[in-house]
Fold this protein.
Amino acid sequence: MADKITIFHNPRCSKSRQTMELLHENSVTPEVVEYLKTPPDYQTIDDILKMLKIEPRQLMRTGEAEYKENDLANESLSREQLIEAMVNFPKLIERPIVIKNGKAAIGRPPTAILEIL
């Protein structure tokens, strides 16, 4: 049985589209989660952060208006508060994220996902 591969995908993002293309070139048909339509819950984001071995702010798109409008650069915010912000504003989540067998990679650049395939 083939290993399940999931991509948190935004079809409007060029890096996300390039990562999808790279998966298909490697004969991978991932489960696609359009995270802006179906946002991940708190536990999913927490799990992704653990797989990536990064802190919440490292998974956030700091240039987004929601980041500035919600004062998310504030260093006093807790890990939990930052994860909640990504739950409430999924646009803040860096993309694409590919997950396979308990490992994750951010497709920036898209070739970064090859190390977990």
